[in-house]
Amino acid sequence: MTAAANRQPTIHPTAQIAASAVIEGAVEIGAHSVISHGAVLVAEGGTLRIGAHCVVMENSVIRSTSHNNCTLGNHVMVGPHCHLSGCVIGDEVFVATGVSVFNGAQIGAGAELRINAVVHIKTHVAAGATVPIGWVAVGNPAQLFSADQHDAIWAVQQPLDFPGYVFGVDRNSDGVMRQITERYGAFLARQRTAE
Question: Which InterPro entries does UniProt cross-reference here (predicted)?
Fold first, then answer.
């Protein structure tokens, strides 16, 4: 039975999981993969699949969502303190320390996301591409910006509609954060009681 069918983790017997790692929900971990101390792998309503020969380093958080499954291909390295949510990472991708990749993003095979890079929602980074240290990738196809180019980033990011896409909340409605936290909190509570 797969993790998706029973909502429980499925871990290949050759995978190595640190004692302090948290693995919850429909998570599948492939052969010879290593999950380090403090890593958190959580399937929140969707499935999370880690391929074969992957390394997830200390204190990284990887999660699926109810709208976006999360998949890491084979031979992917995720550095310490990364955050990957509802994204698809191709084979042989290097995700350096502190990288964030958001819902609906797709990273092509052989790409490099260097230290503290950010890949926004629904952004597609091409196979073999590099997002430089501290840079921001936005759009499909990805446009790359240094972090000091807020206005240029926002011009591409705003139509991607983070509050609407991720939380189903209209950015222009009253009490956006109140709506987001109440809606997301209720969703998480339902997930915990369903397990």
Answer: Transf_Hexapept/Carb_Anhydrase, Trimer_LpxA-like_sf
Are the C-beta atoms of residues 119 and 125 closer than 8 Å to each other? yes
pLDDT at residue number 4: 46
**Domain topology for 3-160:** UDP N-Acetylglucosamine Acyltransferase; domain 1 (2.160.10)
Residue range(s) in the chain whose domain bears CATH number 2.160.10.10: 3-160
From CA 33, how far away is CA 166, in angstroms rounded? 29
Phi, psi of 35 (to 5 degrees): -115, 115
Mean pLDDT for the chain overall:
93
Whether the predicted pLDDT of 83 surpasses 80: yes
Residue with tokens 């990887």: 62
Query: Per residue in 63-96, is it b (16+ CB within 10 Å) or e — as a string?
Result: bbbeebbbbbbbbbbbbbbbbbbbbbbbbbbbbb
